[in-house]
Batch of 3 targets.
Target 1
Amino acid sequence: MLRRHAKIIRLIEIAGEVSGRKKLQKMVYIGKHLNMDFDERYEFHMYGPYSEELTLRVDELCNMGFLDEQVESKGAIHMYRYTLNPSGRDFLRFQDVQFGRGEQVIRRMNEENSRFLELVSTILYFNHLPYEEMVRKIFTFKSKQRYTEEEIQKGQAFVEELKLLMQGEIDTAPLM
């Protein structure tokens, strides 16, 4: 049971800090899609792929005192920031969680904002469809985000970049 928790703690340790619940959701989903060892099940939701299991796991980690969750309120909007604390570091010392080349992928994903990662995760969710149909689905389901076809192409290029990082074909990601 705690092994699944340790994977989330390790992701946050590698990232240093993850700003936003949505961003964390998308990072785990994308990582899972790239064959990183995550167990959470996902369904399509208002903001793209979403895992209730991940939400519960993060809440448990905060309640156990392994993660710090800072909440910033900007009017009606609450922004959550997750960092690893000393108790979480101690816990990780007893867990063998390695992501290998996935560590570079985690760092690279964390450089992007949640809106872009939402698009990338949605692209991956519909990647089994022909390109035109995938674009239609994004325009339909994500109409409020007003993604452009150029952004979708940038998202696809980002997926390819992450795949190359996972395969070790590039050492560091090029700036986009």
Target 2
Amino acid sequence: MLSRAVADGAATERVRTEDGGAGSAARGARVLAGLGRGRAWFRSFRRTRPFWGGVWLVAGGWTVLKFSLAPMRLVVSTGFDGIAGYLLGGGMILSGLVPLAAPQQRYTFGIIGAVLAVVSLVASNLGGFLLGMVLGVLGGSMMVGWGPKRPARRERRTAARSGSGSGEAA
């Protein structure tokens, strides 16, 4: 009897191991499918917004903000010179993030971000020791220059032919 119980236990353990392996493979497939969907969503998001301009403008704003951090007592006692780094860096970060949510505002916030970056040269530690200013101007100009992705040339030709063909028939 004892040998039979041991054999049944071993068989049950083999079944559990095989089922666990199948469950693990299915779970891995679901994770990979989820990652694929997430990557496709991010690619679509990135291509429909001035993503890289926003990234560079936020990086420039963070640099200006980082190089102007000081204790609050010093910031308050120095007046605008102390607060300028916070205002300019925060404004550059905000100017980089808003067009990601509302791409139609890219011109306005791209220009505002570039102007804040240039002003930071004078008002805040040489614009984050020139690095923040350069990143901010680069990001602002990329935002202004960005445009929605146009359809491929082949698709435009097909659309033009079908549009002209239907116009002739009418």
Target 3
Amino acid sequence: MSNNVRLDLFLKKSRLIKRRPLAKKMCDDGMININGRVAKAGHKLHVGDTLCVNSASRFVEVRIEEIPTGNVRKNQASELYHILKNERKQVNILDWFDDEEEDEFD
């Protein structure tokens, strides 16, 4: 029985992030923290670790309660962690555009 698991696999099994390649990319982009430090996809998680997912649309902070040893049913995924913070971010599409940029067609 394993007492730790890779971060990207935990994110997928817990359904905090739907796909493992996306979890890996988010780790590579510095969007995932463990115990206050930016974490790589291969980081081994332990019960009691604090995990933060900081995506464009939300910020989620959880405490790891259980490490999965096999497949996890959808209705059991939320038992793997305890939510400490779950905030939706307001996304303003106008922030994507920079008013100071010159038009290429002028």
